[in-house]
Amino acid sequence: MNLDSLDEILRLCWSSLFRGAVQSRDEFHTPVMATYDGKQPNARTVVLRETIIDTRTLLFFTDVRSAKIDELNHCPFATFVFWNPGKHIQIRAKGQLTLHHKDQLALEKWKQLPPRNRKDYATLQAPGALVETADNHLPDFWSEENLSISQTDTFVENFVVLEAVINQLDWLFLNRIGHKRASFEWNGTHWLKSWLVP
């Protein structure tokens, strides 16, 4: 990989994001997502579910009752921070988000989720709600061993796909010999590539 070539670095960014989606142990599988609620920024770790390079799209799943939904309805933009400590590479990806709730994309992704993965959307209270105990707060019938798809179908009501179309990438490589930083901005037809002071 030629880290003196902006074209190569852009390809590296997208191949890294693609790998982060398909390999659950990859460093880029769980970026930090930052949103804005109108008063202050909020950040949390999310799971990168899919990367579609041709359309500059990243997909994430969440619960419709979570605070980030209200934040994205207020301001439909987010920044995702990916960090690979082994390679000393950070990628910040900024884009506009579309929420898919009970539409074709959401239903398609829901059907692909096995029952054990649906529990993230099956809690009796909303994520972040105050509770008395540290239980999982799942329905009484929930059992990892004997759970059927049909038992979990009702929780599609809580399932949302976040579709982020990325319009800006900021790549940073930390190296004791000398850091490198590059910016990529989508202008509607192609990426504008620039070097930045690290």
Summarize the SSE layout with pairings.
Elements: H1 6-22, E1 32-36, E2 41-45, E3 50-52, E4 57-63, H2 67-74, E5 77-84, E6 89-101, H3 104-112, H4 149-152, E7 159-173, E8 180-186, E9 191-196
Antiparallel strand pairs: 1-2, 1-5, 3-4, 4-7, 5-6, 6-7, 7-8, 8-9
Relevant terms:
9-stranded antiparallel beta sheet, 198 residues
* End-to-end distance: 19 Å
- CATH architecture call: Roll
Shape: elongated
Q: Which structural class fits the helix and strand makeup?
A: alpha+beta
What is the compact description of this entry?
The protein is 19% helix and 35% strand. With 198 residues, the protein is of the alpha+beta class.
How would you describe this structure to a colleague?
This protein has one domain (6-122, 148-196): Electron Transport, Fmn-binding Protein, Chain A (Pnp Oxidase, Chain A), CATH 2.30.110.10. Strands 1, 2, 3, 4, 5, 6, 7, 8 and 9 form a nine-stranded antiparallel sheet that branches. The protein is built from four helices and nine strands. The two termini are 19 Å apart. The protein has 198 residues and is α+β, with helices and mostly antiparallel strands. 19% of the residues lie in helices and 35% in strands.
